[in-house]
Amino acid sequence: MLLLHRVGGGGAVRGGGDAARWGDAARARTVRHPGRRRAAPPARYAREGGEAAPLSTSAPAATAAPGGANPLELLRAERDPIARAALLRQLDGRWSDHASSYTPSAAERCISQELHVWAQTLMVWAIQTPGLQRFDAEAELRPAIRTLKSVLPETDVYFLLTKRYEALLSEPVALQRWLDWLAAQGVGQREVLAFLLAAPGELYTDGTLHQAGQVVGWLRSLGIKPEFLWARVACACPALLLRDPASDLQPRASYLLSLGVSATQLSQLACLRPEVLLAPIDGQLKPFVDHLKSLGATAAQAGEVLLAAPHAALRADGPAAAFEARLARLAAAGVGPERVAEMLRRGHTRFLTEKGAPGEALDALRGLGFDPEQVRRIVTACPAVLVEKPLELERHLTFLLDCLVMSREAVIGPRHAFAEARGLQGRVTRTDGLWDLAALSTGPDVAFVEALGASINEFEGFRTSYEVDYTSKMSADAAAEFEAELRKLGIWEGGG
After folding, report:
1. Where is the composition biased (Low complexity) (predicted)?
2. Whole-angstrom Cα distance, residue 19 to residue 237?
3. How sure is the predictor about 406, in pLDDT bands with cuts at 50, 70 and 90?
4. Which contiguous run of DSSP H or E holds residue 51?
5. Would you say residue 153 lies in a domain?
6. pLDDT higher than 90, residue 459
7. Burial (CB count <10 Å: 0-12, 13-18, 19+), residue 214
8. Structural domains of the chain, count
9. Which one, of 102, 116, 89, 12, lies nearest residue 55 by Cα?
10. Domain span at residue 438?
11. pLDDT surpasses 60 at 90
12. pLDDT by residue (tens digit) across 180-195?
């Protein structure tokens, strides 16, 4: 028997006719499926004063929120992690029930009206963002949203709100002023979006358009091209617009120029990593340069490393951590601090900045068959090997070996055959019976022939005949190998 409860003192409930109809339908389903267990009846609702309350069923009820409020609605404002965890536990197994009775806040209704966002999506975002409810829907939210809609599509505006709602909603008037200024500068929609995503909150509260104009003029004086000024610098790092060019930005630029960085390279660095212009000299830039000097680099080389890897100077864990792993790999290969300093003195710095160096090159050399001692000798003799990719190293080694084989065939072959043909092989053989490669491969042909007691003309004629015979033999061998492969495949159509 279904037990119906009255909500409150005088609220009406559904009559017995509904319950009887529900019972008839349930019995009918049971008859059609005699082997299936009857499901629990759905929750029913009685209404009083416009509020919906679930009727009791046989399932155990979840712990109620304080005062009977919807836990989802309480999560919109609750910031305490422990209290939020308790509210989330109340949602276990009853999310759909609470979601069906969820009442959107004024902020959610405003966003839904202005940006046409699905209510369920807004609910999920609202319960994850307790700070949203502190903004007044009409005085702050709606003006800011309409300001953003004047320059960006609605989808971009909603994306911005989910990422930077506190900065964008706190000062709607200042937001309008900055967007008007960007429009006057001819900044495109994509750059405006990047600007709003990266702009700190202080820009809207403390920044002035006059100061921003001075910074833009200073950036232009560096030689930054107009197409890069906003896309790569000002909109990518709006915090620059809060700085004073004379007292903040110019000293950093002067320090970088003192490291041997040219004016063109400085503008390129500003486009690549504008944050470098915000890095404190004594706190980041100078310790980075001093660490490179301690490794054996000069100030100019420190500038080269900074240009190649500016992110290394901006690390929060210090300059030593930027190169620690690379130096450890070199030390494991037998290249200690003294060898590293020697490589730097010889002008090699790319192994400190190139992606994958030096680990990939060291592993590739070992994979090509060199033992640890040979790897150490190769690296110290030619540090440029450390920045080569494994595939390039393999190609270089293959080419080198092919050249050596070709050289041996072209030089040693004719000389040894000439000595054998004249019965003088004893003069090109060592005491252990092996060929004397030094006698066969070094020196000009005239000296080799004179050592054998023959004439150069005789040797030249013999070598011409030898090369013809050798070429014919190689061609015949290649043809025989090709025929053998075709026979293995069963597609040989020749005779024999």
Report:
1. 52-67
2. 66
3. low
4. strand 51-54
5. no
6. no
7. middle
8. 1
9. 12
10. 407-489
11. yes
12. 999 999 999 999 999 9
